[in-house]
Predict the structure.
Amino acid sequence: MREILYRDALNEALHEEMARDPAVCVLGEDVGRYGGVLQVTRGLFDKFGEKRVRDTPISEAGFTGIAVGAAMTGLRPVVEVMYIDFSALAMDQVVNQAAKARYMFGGKASAPLVLRTQGGGGRGNAAQHSQSLEMWYVHVPGLIVVQPATPSDAKGLLKSAIRDDNPVIFIEHKLLYNTAGPVPEPGPDHLVPIGVADIKRAGGDVTIVATSRMVLFALQAAEELAAEGIDAEVIDPRTLKPLDLPAIIRSVEKTGRLVVVNEGALTGGFTAEVAARVQREAFDWLDAPVMQVAAEDVPLPYNGRLELAALPSVEKIVAAAKAALYWDR
Amino acid sequence: MPSDIIMPRLGLTMEEGTVVRWLAREGEHVVQGTPLLEVETDKVVVEVEAPASGVLRAIQVREGEKAPVGAPLAHLYAADEIETRKKEKGKRKIFSSPRARRRAAGLGLDWRILAGSGPQGRIIERDVLAAASPEGPPPPPVAPPPQQLHLSVEVGAEALLGMCARLSPSIERHAGVQLTTTDLLIRICGAALARHSRANARWEDGRVCLQTQVDVRLVAAAGKAVIPDAERPLSQIASERAALLDREPRKFPPAGSNSDLPSSLFLLPSVPPALGSLQSASFTLVDLGMFRVDRLQPVLAPPQSAILTVGRIAERPAVVDGRVAVRPTAFLTLTCDSRVFDAVLAAQFLDCIADLIEEPYGLLI
């Protein structure tokens, strides 16, 4: 299979969906003539024109609000928020409007928009441009939250997100755009269903659930663990909400040990959520406490060494897996 | 360990048998040689005798069920085995993982009598599997021991001896104790730990724990003691050292006496240091100045992360200003836990100690 970049996989998905459905439109800062600061919307302006690909002023609340209105009146907008940190400015539009529309109008209205944004640290972008805020959106009923880790999942999930009738928060990672991976040739639709986890590496000794860029870390940790005779299974939920809990439970029933990895801050984070669910649903299958690997509870430092120290790392995942196997004793 | 009752081979061609009837109930005490169960092959029904005396537990094959030859049917526990284990376990809470209890229930085992290999004696799945397996447990994976770094250097000791001689009379006048080079070494190690605060750390609960106070655990001919706050004035360190070591019984004869040294030298790892004696110190100084020992590669005393031995001070040839001269020197050997120290930190730390020994006025800086 051909290998393409994460960035290009997203670009392909947008081209294909805009060609397939005239209701799909794109808006955001610099997404048109410039092709997006991340070049994900490259070529859309020339192909589909300025009515369907709109450059907006720097006003997240404004253009996200336009997208919610457009979605409720029949379009399928894909709005780009340059950094997830800036999505705080559009919170009211997303949380109080988009997420509630379908419920509060008794199903007579819906807001089928996709809010594309990117988060994560590790690039020295400092505290206001490095956050992992996915759990803000996971906490809001009415939203779907998706975080692809590979080019194939990025393309397949973006296409599914555009076709979904619910508002979808589609969170990319700034350090994944230049990663390559196999993606099927364009032609028949490559769709990855929302709400279905993927086993990125099968194993029998310990389950590692990881999201977004942490999937790559977990896979590397699994290789290091394999060198020491530990066979780790790596599961990428891909969709944070709705979470494919059965896939995680099935794995825990096999291994009895669970490490959850997420780049967001530890407190009130994804790792706690998964740990709570698993202990309730699979208590009798656990042979060790669930281990959490997450960012320290600090604004991410600009200093490169401090930033790395605050973020999850391959080393921390390896240590957590060993702790779950009582290897640290 | 409990003994297994297995499906016996009752004929050359027999591959499986049916348990017709158990003649004892679970929990019942049976005597070796008495009939325990009836087994039916395609030809006959045979009574099987108890292979040992004990309490029948964990019947895995019920009446009317089949099992292949050699399969475990139940366990026999010696009566006192159960009693002692229950008594031992009755004294404290038994920790167990949910998975282990689930597995034990499936195997019909009483998990409360098992030995746990997890933290706080937690019974985990592998302990249950080990108890149920006739071959005994597969060896549990064992974490490799911590890697240790060993560094050594020879240092000149004139300045140290000189300072000791200069300060000794006034300290004796002030504090009423004899100043020794050991006291200077304690003070120097204290200064080095304070200057490299990253080195003043213990490895506890799987992580580096930086210490707020500089304590030095001393091992010397006169005994062992933790000298708290090793950054204090020398007179206080000397008094503390004298008070602590004079109070402790002298397990070893002072150097120079004719009596034999005990065969178990106190640094052998087979004599682990009592936890109390480690207190909060992250670092041990082993001063072998009284013995005819040049170098000793010390053994770490976890959770401490570093240990330094100083051999005897003796006159040795040394290159000074391009010429070979005779001067007093000593060998320092530092052993560090590689989880706390990297090679650079270990080298900087040892370098700092060596500098202060060769130029103890550096303590004033």
About this structure: The mean pLDDT of chain A is 97. The first strand of chain A starts at residue 3 and ends at 5.
